[in-house]
Amino acid sequence: MEELRTQLRRGIEDLRRGATQIDKFSPESTDGCPECHGRGLVLTGDEARQCRCMQQKILSNRFRHANIAMLMRQFSFSEFEFKYYSKQLRDDSAVNITYYETAQRAFNAARRFVRECLESEHARGLLLSGPVGCGKTYLAGAIANELVGYGIEVLFTVVPDLLDEIRSTYDRQEGGQSEIELLEAARKVGVLILDDLGAHNYTEWTRNKLYSILNFRLIHQLPTVITTNLTLQELDSYLGERTTSRIVQLCRAYRLAAERDIRLVKSQESR
Ligand SMILES: [Zn+2]
User: Fold this and answer.
1) How far is the CA of 65 from the centre of ligand 1 (A)?
2) How do residues 74-97 score in pLDDT, each as one tens digit?
3) Buried-most residue among 52, 161, 186, 270 (CB within 10 A)?
4) Which residues are CB-neighbours of 76 under 8 A, at least 6 positions away?
């Protein structure tokens, strides 16, 4: 009961915080609900319980805050497909293990990350590196969905989009405006996911901002997931040593690799 109460309270806070966004983006409303007729509560005897439509609304609002793309909301641990990872072929990186083993290790690390986030606000982060189309974003999405489902505050950011935001703060600097919300959220959110920290066009400004996000999260020990198709050495040359060293301190590193680009294989399968 106590747990439900906490959930309700959190839900209400979520709704309050997100009220403007709901008005803007959510055409669905509880008004037409046949069960509660828009009250959000259902009475059974003298007990009031939250209506299913409200629970749905709270959940979808959490997803909205989490910034997880529609497509990605289907990503889940239970649907992770190990069949794309060969049990015979070996990953040609430095470690002598099969593709299947890289998938097992990364998968277990992702689940462990979720477990630790449920136990503590200061779970150790996770760095997933590997070639394009090896399932990194899938795992990151599964982590996000799982955490959101448990009511944990998550922000899923795709790094090129984040860089665009950061650039726009540069343009606004002259007006003396404060940092925009996404950047602040990236620093402080309960769990931050940085998807595709790759070979993008970094400027001194964007590099500094990325550093400040990661440095803040390291100092405050805030759980962070990073996916990248770069090696640590490459990250070093793109982002600079101080940022790479923050990443190393912040995260446990796992390599995930498949013998072929899974997205390509999937698109061929569906033909
Ligand atoms: Zn209802």
Assistant:
1) 22
2) 999 999 999 999 999 988 776 689
3) 186
4) 142, 145, 146
